[in-house]
Amino acid sequence: xxxxxxxxxxxxxxxxxxxxxxxxxxxxxxxxxxxxxxxxxxxxxxxxxxxxxxxxxxxxxxxxxxxxxxxxxxxxxxxxxxxxxxxxxxxxxxxxxxxxxxxxxxxxxxxxxxxxxxxxxxxxxxxxxxxxxxxxxxxxxxxxxxxxxxxxxxxxxxxxxxxxxxxxxxxx
Length: 172
Known about the structure:
five-stranded antiparallel β-sheet, 2 domains, 5 strands, alpha+beta
């Protein structure tokens, strides 16, 4: 879900306001990019949905603060959205669920075995979502897909797992 970053500039949020996160919009020299999933139906159906880059940051801490700032500015009525922080090589560093005023960071998997279990569970949830869609249960299907996406958010690149886990411990 968070494999790619859109190379173009800052995009609009679902509610139509581009975020001001206190950083140059897309200075390629900055190593961390804050992204959100692309919700464009055409891109999703074509299989070409790439994550939408919101802003770039010099450090992971700055990117985390940018995500929190964005969550603080989400309207109360906005649906929660998954934000991801990627490094300069487009590897997942950290992801979390942003809602009005808070970001719930997803703790990364710590081993290959745990990653396989997460992928398996997410695949099962997506299969259940497909069946729920066939049964004319769109709300259940959407909920199951959302749960699968949150599991995918734990699939931090192996290079970043220990560092991210420690950063979350310090932040707590």
